[in-house]
Amino acid sequence: MHILGIDVGGTGIKAALVETKTGELLGEKIRIVTPHPATPAAIAATLRDLIAQQQWAGPVGIGFPAAIQHGVARTAANIDAAFIGLPVADYFSQQAGCPCHVANDADVAGLAEMRFGAGKGNAGVVLIVTIGTGLGTALFSDGKLMPNTELGHIRLENGYEAERYASEAVRITKKLKWKEWGERLNVYLTTMESLLWPDLIILGGGVSKKLGKFLPQISTKAPVVAAGFLNQAGIVGAALFAEREIARQS
Ligand code: BGC
User: Fold this and answer.
1) What CA–CA distances, in Å, run from 30 to 14, 52, 55, 191, 231?
2) pLDDT digit string (tens) for 65-82?
3) pTM to 2 decimal places
């Protein structure tokens, strides 16, 4: 099935057509800078723009940076607070004129990684951490997702909220060296390990391309690997989520 996958991030919104059978991107990936303030109307306008640029009129899957319970946004850490309680799937469908299926961005990245990427075939507990403006998490056991884990918001022993300490945004704004930032990420990952005991940790987001620069700082027992789709897991997974929803509804 061909589905337009869209990854809504804190800094950019990316869209590409996905072949869900293989996880391949068909055609060009288009990126538009996330509007600020990231209000529902502003995000909807950007989605409309991306869908038009892709000349698409079919189903759309959207990975969104919030807990999404049955199509309704429940949190808004790095987006406008007006999203809280909004039935985003219905709202975006109406605004975009295409059926939109919306789920948490880290959860959909996880779907892509478990089906085609670094978690493929892993029947144990797999933790996916997407590192960007925030820290997103997805947790799988025996290939099944437990949706909407918001574990980027846990408070670390040093008193910091995890995503205010170890996100990509923190690395950039504080101009941290890879080693310094790697040490911060290690505090987070070892904390997660002590709570969840995953068999595998997969890192997504832009930094997944730079794993070699900070892996020496990571001391978890579980292996830490880069997302097979690197920074594209969100787009592919959004399309996979939409495919799953379409099958469920029919
Ligand atoms: C949000 C999560 C999201 C993560 C990554 C966090 O601030 O609360 O829902 O998955 O950022 O975008």
Assistant:
1) 6, 11, 12, 36, 13
2) 999 999 999 999 999 999
3) 0.97
